Structure formats: C-alpha cells, structure tokens
User: Fold DUF4126 domain-containing protein from Dyadobacter linearis.
Amino acid sequence: MELFLSICLGIGLSASCGFRVFMPMLLANIAAMNGWITPGEQFAWLTTLPAFFALLSATVLEIGGYYIPFIDNLLDTIATPAAVIAGTLLTTSVIEIDSPVVHWGLGLIIGGGTAGIIQLGTGALRLLSSKTTAGIGNPVVSTAENVASFTISGLAIFLPVIAIALVGLLFFWLFRKLSKLKKRSS
Assistant:
C-alpha cells in the first residue's frame, strides 16, 4: 500500500510539473521540511533551507514570466524538457524501491512522462490562445495553470489517491479540449 501511495504522490507532483516546473518542487520542499512527505536518502537536499530559497525564487520568476506576452510561449519551449526532468526527480524522490534501474525507470516513465504530456498539452493550449487572441487570453491560461499546479500538488501531498483520479480526469479533459480546438482552428 505504501508503494501505491508513493506512486500516486509521484504522479500527482509530476503532473503539477507539467503546469509549472518549480511550484510542485517548492511545495514538495515545504512538505518535506515539515515532515509531511519523506524523500529518499538521495534527495535529502529537498528538505534544506537553501533548496527552499532557490525553489521559491525560481517559482516567483517562472510565474511572473508566464504573464508576459510571448515570453510565455518561449518559457513553454524551455519548460517542456525541464518539466520532464522535474517530474522524474520528484517521482523518483518519493518512490522507495531498492533496484536503482527500476527506481529511476519508474521515475522517468511515470513522472517524466506525466509531466511531459501535461506540459505539451498546456503548451498547445497557450499556442492556440496566442493564435486566436493575439496573446490577450494568455494570462487567463497562465492563471488556470498556476491554480492547477498548486491544487494538484496539494492534493498529491495530502490526498494522493484523489490526486491520481484528478490527473486521469485532467488527461481526459485536456485531450477533448485539444481535439475541439484543433477542429475549430482547421
């Protein structure tokens, strides 16, 4: 059961990385510093005060950058590989498996894959928003992403099973939304 919950936590945090790279890492840092989650030994840095300040600074800069028109599209280009890396790290940090190959493999496939899919979907939505509203609608998209990242991270930390169900619903909604927007723009 503990492995299942840690996988749910990892998936929830990595999905949040698809919306914002640093916010889920900051929230995981705060949770680890308060003993709400326990990262593996290799990830003891996640419980430190320097990590808190670095992640807090990165989170503020990332959120602020997404409210600047067209910089937000540039950030999506950078955020896609960064989200995969962050999702992999967060998932690997909370799953305890003795085999390093399986441990990092699960982190990459589950965590990196989830973060990458969400990031690609949000990047496509932002691109469509830029195309259809000349960037005027992008702050609305950014705000929704901030709220989603914070909410899913919080649920993943405190209610991991609910977070995994929410991620499943999010995948379903995202694919439907992208399909409708793609048909409408064609």
In short: The longest helix spans residues 100-133. DSSP finds seven helices and no strands in the chain.
